[in-house]
Every structure is written in structure tokens, then in C-alpha cells.
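note to self — DONT lose this again. spent like an hour looking for the file last time. sequence + predicted structure for the chain T wanted, 128 res
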Amino acid sequence: ENYLIQEFVSTKHELLIGGYRDSSFGPVIMFGSGGKYVEVLDDTAIRSAFITDEEIDEMILSTKMGKILSGVRGENAADLSQLKNIIKSTSQMLIENQGIIEFDLNPLILDISNKFHAVDIRIKYGKQ
């Protein structure tokens, strides 16, 4: 018998980080609200994967989820520097690996301790 055992993560927020290769713009990165309501909430921002720290800040804060993560009504803010590092790392992964056609971390969970967990990752690899 085989078993898959995974840590239970007490979810506070579900995020999405994704990327793909656009035929006109090249590699692009996406951030926003994720999980099962991603299409319903329609809360994402898309930028070139060749992104600066300032552009990552602007991308995060341009979404409703980014504003929530910054702290609302006395809630502690999430560690946005850790989130920025995840976005920067996934952007770099897409840039450096031409075989990656698209990917997504959905959901990327922020737990009740304000730690991030990539619990579902999909990478489409091949030729365009």
C-alpha cells in the first residue's frame, strides 16, 4: 500500500502566481487572488517577467488581495518581502527556462501564521 501524507495548512488566504509566454510580449507573470474562486473574484495583475522590485510592489498593491495582505483593520500584514521573493523567483524561472510554456501556483496559501505554502503547482513544459 502507498500513502501520501501532507501537512495540514490552516488557510488564511489563497493566492495565485502564474506565468506564460505571450507571443507578442514574451514571458509574463501574474499575481492575484487564487484558489477555487479565482475566476469569480477576477483579481489579478499581469506584468512582464522582466520585472523590478518596484514593479512587483506595484503589481501586488494593484490587486484587492495585495491590499488585504498589507493589513486591514488591525490584521497583521503578510511578509510581503517573502511574497516578492516568490514572484521574483518564479519570474526568473520562466525567463531562464525556455521550455516552460506556462506555470501556476494555485493556490499559494498564506496560513494563519503568515507563512506561504505552494500546495498545488502546475508546469507545462515543451515546445511552443
